[in-house]
Amino acid sequence: MARRIQGQLDEPLNDTGRQQARAAAARFAPDMVDAILCSDLGRAAQTAAPLGEATGVTVQPQAVWRERHFGRFQGWRYAEIAEQAPAVFARIEARDPDLDLDGGESLLQVRARIDAALQALVARYRGQRVVVVSHGGVLDAVYRLVTGKPVSEPRDFPIHNACICRLHWVDGQWHIDRWADIDHLLDSQDEIDPRSRPAALLGRVG
């Protein structure tokens, strides 16, 4: 209950986050990457920077890969929401697909945004290997889009800080090769909600 929601607040990585970004970048050889996209939030750009340096590929920030906007509750702790807005907290816990958090995005809106972003990847990068550095809420949407899991169902799949998820596109659909790989990471966490921390999505398009 001590977790704090970052959402689209543009806060920088801490020392642990920068270390994890370097560790993730070390997993990619220069010939493994044709393009690097990232959320235009600062913490995602900081995560992507070591990968760009390691591969020599220019990082392209794109707003479409941002974390979910949590409306007026950005920066709040879950315990604060539970205490001060218990009805909203109950809907968050129930994964209400239409809850927009007073000016933010609903789960259905995030799903639609990421669905369009994935379709754009296929249209633009067919035959290439693309790394997208984004956020936990985005990975949640990606997993559900690929597997068909409804946004209203509880999450029963892992999402970790600076994890690497590998997918490929073939025969008109995405397939997961490996999900939430953290072999490159030290065993360290902090109090920031892991759903808001940057992570990498490696997609092989066709």
Automatic annotation (TrEMBL):
Residue spans crossing the bilayer: none
Any one Gene Ontology cellular component term annotated for this protein: cytosol
Family matches, as Pfam families: His_Phos_1 (PF00300)
Molecular function GO terms recorded: phosphatase activity
Source organism superkingdom: Bacteria
CDD domains with a match to the protein in the record: HP_PGM_like
InterPro entries named in the record: His_Pase_superF_clade-1 (IPR013078), His_PPase_superfam (IPR029033), PGM_Phosphatase (IPR050275)
Protein name: Histidine phosphatase family protein
